[in-house]
Amino acid sequence: MAKDVIIACDFPNAEKTLAFLDQFSGLDRKPFVKIGMELFYGAGPDIVRQVKKRGHQIFLDLKLHDIPNTVMRAMRVLRDLDVDMCNLHAAGTVRMMEAAIEGLTRDDGTHPLLIAVTQLTSTDQTALEEDLWIEHPMDQVVMHYAENARKAGLDGVVCSPLEAGKVHEACGLDFLTVTPGVRFAENDAGDQKRVMTPAQARAIGSDYIVVGRPITAAEDPVGAYLRCMTDFLG
Ligand code: C5P
Questions:
Q1: Which end of the chain, N or C, is less packed with Cβ atoms under 10 Å?
Q2: Are the C-beta atoms of 104 and 87 separated by less than 8 Å?
Q3: Distance between CA 70 and CA 65 in Å, rounded?
């Protein structure tokens, strides 16, 4: 199964993103990168085409959540943009997730990897109960949503590295866990509350780690990326 490090390109515009990626031009294999809402909404779909043209695989992190027909049609657009991975909110229901797969599926029956967000890590138990009126413990909600995603035919979930083992137990080893919240041992965790090193994420069975600032804010981003790859892939 593919295991990889995905660099979160959390930059405000195309110029800064491409200047950052220029540093990796000497590598034989270009890093897998994540493009999020800020960059996509600011720079438009052309940023995806430009980054793809440079040989990077792309995780387009737009977290879709709408009625099934709208999500199906939006996913068709993302399929035609040739992204490698994209995501949605499992809260949109199994039917919405099935519609998303339908929209993403190419003529040959394959589709870009589709990953579900179960509950955002910014949502705590209090918000779950008081704002969303969901009266189950957070870990059970996360597992239920992960199982719904698997039933709908998705490839995996975004989760904390601490949840990756449990997700694999409930949904199988081939159900992907994509985990942010990764830090080198000497890094400041910043706003991330629960963090793991790349080696710990590997030990716990993460399939993809999403790493932003430990690489983007490093003095030597290429060195930090290569270190991450070595520690994670073993
Ligand atoms: O800079 P840092 O390594 O914290 O970046 C992590 C990336 O993963 C960011 O793009 C952040 O939005 C994303 N992410 C996260 N936690 C989640 C889901 C996504 O940190 N639960």
A1: N
A2: no
A3: 9
Q: What is the pLDDT of residue 122?
A: 86
- Kind and range of the H or E run holding 7: strand 4-8
Give the mean pLDDT of 8-26.
Answer: 97
3-state secondary structure 170-231: HHCCCCEEEECCECCCCCCCCCCCCCECHHHHHHHCCCEEEECHHHHCCCCHHHHHHHHHHH
Confidence (pTM): 0.96
**CATH number, domain containing residue 17:** 3.20.20.70
Q: Who wins on pLDDT, 79 or 187? A: 79
CA of 183 to the centre of ligand 1 (A): 11
Inter-axis angle of helices 138-151 and 161-171, nearest 10: 50
pLDDT digits (tens, 9 = 90+) for 195-207: 899 999 999 999 9
**Which of the residues 63, 151, 166, 193 is marked catalytic?**
63
Domain containing residue 66: 4-233
Domain count, the chain: 1
What tens digit of pLDDT does each residue of 102-116 get?
A: 999 999 999 999 999
| C-beta of residue 20 within 8 angstroms of C-beta of residue 221 | yes
Q: Active site includes 63? A: yes
Residue ranges in the chain assigned as alpha helix (H): 14-22, 37-43, 46-53, 68-80, 94-104, 125-130, 138-151, 161-171, 198-204, 213-216, 221-233
The CA 107 to ligand 1 mean position distance, Å, reads 33
The SS3 assignment for 81 reads coil
